[in-house]
Each structure stands twice: as structure tokens, then as C-alpha cells.
Write a structure and sequence with these properties.
single chain; about 325 residues; alpha/beta; Rossmann fold; 7-stranded mixed sheet; 6-stranded parallel sheet
Length: about 325
């Protein structure tokens, strides 16, 4: 099968031919139709996340069809369309798993980090951590739901009942979250790189009531803010923007160092918290909610072999919404398995 391989952090992915993986016990083999590109992929490729399996096939927003199953993987049959997210497996026995916090599992393994992911024609996944994909979504539009949507949804839940919600960094996750927030009757204020007029217009088009620069205050105090941009200096900025009792949620897996800030901007029972990974419950809730809104994903597609270009375009903010690799046509007869 064709795949894009990371051999060393800080180097471009390399196009390779490799054997189609065989599903083990409890696994499904998936013919990948599309795979979203996430900022986490960029952090892995750039070496900011330090412990990937190497060599590695990245990609954790996988949409495809099941073509074979291993022993005991009975939930899905051949031909069913599934999605594979970042959380690839957990131990199911640690104190986190036993208390409904499997996203913090001591032994969690992640798709496209510890497990080869979806920048390839085929991938294997633990069937227990796959989700049925809502029928109304084409593959390209479904792929961003698997991480941008899920982490965005978890971040929104962590923000509580906030009526006035700020979002710092308006990329793949934010353009989904704003739709969910609007559906819930919230008002969204979007913050972008200073002077990024294109993205500010995109945020307003997606439903934000205001869009401006990340170094300015919104026209009114916020009840909560979510930071998706991996820039630590946005933490003090968001704390200054939220009212007393407000919540600031850091929604990314990696962020640059947070600068020191005066206690007075945290005082007043403001809360600063992070979001780590996702749970299967997040996936089940969000995948049921998305078609009701309905969430609309804006995507820029790339062929598999253009994965390096897609990562570079993400790095420099050259598109709105989400980037998705097109791997194979679901109507194409399976030629390898």
C-alpha cells in the first residue's frame, strides 16, 4: 500500500510502499478514504511531541470502510464506514479508566503517534475505539469531526454554560465549535493573529458575532474562552478578557511556554484548565449531535502524496477550516485485500 512515513522528527514525510497490515485480535482493517490533518500531526512531525513510534504513519482523523476483522472484533462488518480518532486504546484497569476518565489513562496509545495512522491506503484500529460515521457526511466532510470536532466539543463542555464565549485561534476546531455554540444559543467572539482579516471574515461567516485581533479585548467581557492556538502568550490575554468566575480552556495538546502574569487577572475565581485527548463518550455524544445542528465542515483537500504541502499550509495558516488528505475513492473496487 501507499503511505506517507515519518522517519525522523523535523524531516519531511517520505512516500513509501509498505505491506497492508493484518488485523489482530479485536482490530478492524480499514480501507482509508480520507484522513484529516490536525495541528497535533504538525507537532509530531516538528518534534514538539517527543515520544512517537518511529518510523510512523501519522494521521488520526480517519474515515474509511471496514474490509476485514480480527478475532473478537464483532461490532463492525465488512463494508461498514467507520471513523478512527486520536485515542487508539486504553488499559481499562487504571484509576482513570475506572473513573470515566479514560482520556487520562496511564497506558493510553494514540492513533498516528503510537499506532500507525491514516496517511496511508489502509490502517488497523481497535474496534472499540472506532465510531460509526453519520450517514449525511461525505468522507471529506466527516474526517475533521474525528478530532477537530471531538476536541472542540470536549473543550466547549469544559467551558461550562458560558453565554459569551471567546475562541482564540480560528482553525479546524474553532470553525466546528462556533456552529455547536450557536446551536446552543451562545455568542461567540473570535480572536485571530493580528491583522488576519481573511480569517476574521471567515469567523463571522461561520457565526461569530465579533472577530478581532488576539492582542485586543472584545467589546464586552467573556464568560469563558477556549484557546486552540498553540501560543502560551494567549493565556494571559484570555484571562484578561474573561469576567470574574470565567473559565479559560486550553484545548491543544501542545503550547509554547506561558509567560508570567499578575495574580489579579486570575483572581476573582477565574479558572484556567487544559483539555487532554478525548473519551469514547465524547465521540458518541458529538457524533449524535453533529447531524442535528447540522455541523458543516469547510475543507481543503490534498492527495496523499501532497501531505507535506498540506502540513506546511497548516503551519502557515494558508487555508480556512480543515485540511483533509484524499486517500482512495470509496466507489473504487478494492484492489489490495
Amino acid at each position: 500500500m501507499r503511505a506517507m512515513m515519518l522517519e525522523e522528527p523535523g524531516t519531511p514525510l517520505r512516500a513509501v510502499d509498505m505491506p497492508v497490515p493484518a488485523p489482530g485480535a479485536g482490530q478492524v482493517l480499514i480501507r482509508v478514504h480520507a484522513c484529516g490533518i490536525c495541528r497535533t500531526d504538525l507537532h509530531i512531525v516538528d518534534g514538539e511531541l517527543k515520544e512517537p513510534k518511529l518510523p510512523l504513519v501519522p494521521g488520526h482523523q480517519i474515515v474509511g470502510t471496514v474490509v476485514a476483522t480480527g478475532e473478537g472484533a464483532g461490532r463492525y462488518a465488512a463494508g461498514e464506514r467507520v471513523g478512527v480518532p486520536w485515542l487508539g486504546s486504553t488499559c481499562n484497569t487504571c484509576r482513570y479508566c475506572l473513573s470515566g476518565r479514560e482520556n487520562l489513562c496511564d497506558s493510553a496509545r494514540f492513533t498516528g503517534y503510537h499506532i500507525n495512522g491514516g496517511f496511508a491506503e489502509y490502517a488497523v484500529a481497535d474496534y472499540r475505539f472506532c465510531f460509526p460515521v453519520p450517514a449525511g457526511y461525505p468522507d471529506l466532510q466527516a474526517a475533521p469531526l474525528l478530532c477537530a470536532g471531538l476536541i472542540g466539543y470536549r473543550s466547549l463542555v469544559m467551558a461550562g454554560e458560558a453565554e459569551r464565549l471567546g475562541i482564540y485561534g480560528f482553525g479546524a476546531a474553532a470553525h466546528i465549535v462556533v456552529q455547536v455554540a450557536r446551536f446552543q444559543g451562545r455568542h461567540v467572539y473570535a480572536f485571530t493573529r493580528p491583522g488576519d482579516i481573511r480569517t476574521q471574515k471567515f469567523a463571522r461567516d461561520m457565526g461569530a458575532v465579533w472577530a478581532g485581533n488576539s492582542d485586543e479585548l472584545p467589546p464586552e467581557e467573556l464568560d469563558a474562552a477556549i484557546i486552540f492556538a498553540p501560543a502560551g502568550e494567549l493565556v494571559p490575554a484570555a484571562l484578561r478578557a474573561v469576567a470574574r468566575g470565567g473559565v479559560v480552556v486550553c484545548g491543544g495538546i501542545h503550547m509554547s511556554d506561558i509567560p508570567s502574569f499578575p495574580y489579579e487577572i486570575l483572581w476573582g475565581e477565574r479558572v484556567l484548565r487544559s483539555v487532554a485527548n478525548l473519551t469514547r463518550r465524547d465521540g458518541e455524544e458529538f457524533m449524535a449531535l453533529a447531524p442535528l445542528i447540522p455541523v458543516r465542515t469547510e475543507v481543503k483537500s490534498y492527495p496523499l502524496e501532497a501531505a507535506n504541502q498540506a502540513l506546511d499550509d497548516l503551519r502557515y495558516g494558508r487555508f480556512n477550516g480543515a485540511a483533509v488528505l484524499v486517500i482512495s475513492d470509496p466507489a473504487e473496487q478494492d484492489r489490495l485485500v
